[in-house]
Amino acid sequence: MLPRVATRDSQRGSLGRRSLATAVGGAGLLGAGGTAAAGFSPGVVGTAPYLSDRLHPTMGTDDSNPTLVVYVNFLSDSSQYFVQHNLEDIVREYVLTGDLNLELRFLSYRPDAIDTYLVGDDEGEARAARAAHGVWDVEPENFWQFFEFMYWNFTTKTYTHARLESYMDLAGVRNITKIANRAYEDRYDSLVRSATDEAVRYGISGVPRVRLLRDHKDANYGDVLVWIRTRFDRVNEGSVSTHSLLPGTKYETPVYVIDSVESGPTAFVVGGIHGEEPQGYHAANHIRHLRPTGGKLVVVPYANAPAISIGARYTEDGDLNRQFPTGAQPMSRLARALWDELVSHDPDVVVDLHSSSGIYKHDGRVGQAVFPTWATPDNAASACNSVNEQYVDPSEYPSYYDFDRGNFLDGSRPLFVHKVYGDRKLPGYVVETTRKGTALEDAVTWEVAVARDLLWQHGVYHG
Fold first, then answer.
1. Angle, alpha carbons 451-455-461 (nearest 5°)
2. Per DSSP, what are the bridge partners of residue 215?
3. Does 62 share its domain with 198?
4. Measuring CA to CA, which residue among 417, 226, 453, 389 is closest to residue 321?
5. Euclidean distance between the first and final Cα of the chain, in Å?
6. Residue 462 lies inside a defined structural domain of this protein
7. What are the residues whose beta carbons fall under 8 Å from the beta carbon of 81, sequence distance 6 or more?
């Protein structure tokens, strides 16, 4: 269940600058069957080790490392300069040494006008960003080579479908048709728009930009390495620890504790209570990569390992989310362990991540809704409004896919978050995306966005 760290054999060779093709479409340049063009030799960026179990393209050597987030745009000449100069230095200085991971965002829309393109006057930059996310999703082992190729063959012309397919071929991508078809269908649009949401949250207005926690800087700043270094100690002040719930049993599952060592609230996030809801446990797994700038974040991504292993709601122990009666002990060994874990951290807010086979207020199911406890109902409505505005594309999804605030949870039923309110009177939320007519990455991206917004509203500020 943990992310894979992967490298290429080519890393053992030279990491010097590569010789790249500078034109697209010439018969002599085209690679055959996903083989990189003869003139292309990937360098420091293209051969970087990668962490494939991330929503966004990520390079690094250790899943628990702090993450430097980089914002770029495929039509930005300033982004091109950054990739060819400062990015290589950052990779050498911090990524290859095992000090930082580096994660990309493709900022394609203006933060102050979210339906307006950032650089160009058509959708070429967003189309290229979707294609890049497709490469990362389908073929992560070739993503950084593709990314490097794109910037060493930079163009200010729009990225048409044909141009992108040609670039993928030249860069050695194999699954061109599969990736292109997904990108053309806007399958990765939510991931592209998540960059704009982050830019709004952190006050980022353009590219290229680098961010550590909540601080950010022009990525072409002459002393960007010094800027990173001066913040490195602060990033490393905190700790990321992992322990097991019910170790040595069939229920064993990891608990991640991300402690900023600064004062602030504690958040408890859980996913995977139901094994047939991968959106919930994938979203929780991505939430564990956040770094709070104050307080503590505790994440149990795969709470019900036996149910997840068979992709089911029920196990021989029954439905885990019906075993938390208010005012009494939880009804199973796993339920008691999960509740004891929560109590031990004395959280200020609890978020439980799920998915549904249907849609709230549309077909009688509970998807596309946030169900709050009585403690903070307005926060749920605010999170829904934010995600609807930034993420749920009305050209792709009917209006009933918009998130709604659900009914209030008051402790009257034996559900995990009901008990959160019934026993402890805490702010708590059940977040439900839908599996009905949605791509997995859309639902996961939405769920992560809702959870982040809720955490932010409770003062769990994070980078």
1. 130
2. 212
3. yes
4. 417
5. 23
6. no
7. 220
Q: What is the pLDDT along the chain (463 residues), one digit of tens a residue?
A: 333 334 333 332 333 333 333 333 333 333 333 444 556 789 999 999 999 999 999 999 999 999 999 999 999 999 999 999 999 999 999 999 999 999 999 999 999 999 899 998 888 999 999 999 999 999 999 999 999 999 999 988 889 999 999 999 999 999 999 999 998 888 999 999 999 999 999 999 999 999 999 999 999 988 999 999 999 887 878 889 999 999 999 999 999 999 999 999 999 999 999 999 999 999 999 999 999 999 999 999 999 999 999 999 999 999 999 999 999 999 999 999 999 999 999 999 999 999 999 999 899 999 999 999 999 999 999 999 999 999 998 888 999 999 999 999 999 999 999 999 999 999 999 999 999 999 999 999 999 999 999 999 999 999 8
Pairing of β 404-405 and β 369-372? parallel
Q: Kindly provide the b/e burial profile for residues 332-345, where b requires at least 16 CB atoms within 10 angstroms of the residue's own CB.
A: bebbebbbebbeeb
Q: What is the CATH number of the domain that holds 275?
A: 3.40.630.10
Let me know: does 117 contact 134? Beta carbons within 8 Å: no
| Domain count within the chain | 2
Please check whether residue 106 is in contact with residue 208, taking contact to mean a CB–CB distance below 8 angstroms.
no
Cβ(302)–Cβ(1) under 8 Å?
yes
Whether residues 303 and 423 share a domain: the answer is yes
Q: Which of 233, 253, 273 is the last residue of a domain?
A: 233
Residues 376 and 394 in one domain: yes
Q: How far apart are alpha carbons 109 and 199 in whole angstroms?
A: 10
The token pair at 79 is 């982004």
| 95, 129: one domain | yes
* Domain that includes residue 275, residue range: 238-457
341: left (phi over 0), alpha (psi -120 to 50) or beta: alpha
Task: Let me know how long the chain is.
Answer: 463
Instruction: In whole angstroms, give the CA distance from residue 18 to residue 44.
Output: 9
Helix 189-202 × helix 124-138 angle, to 10°? 110
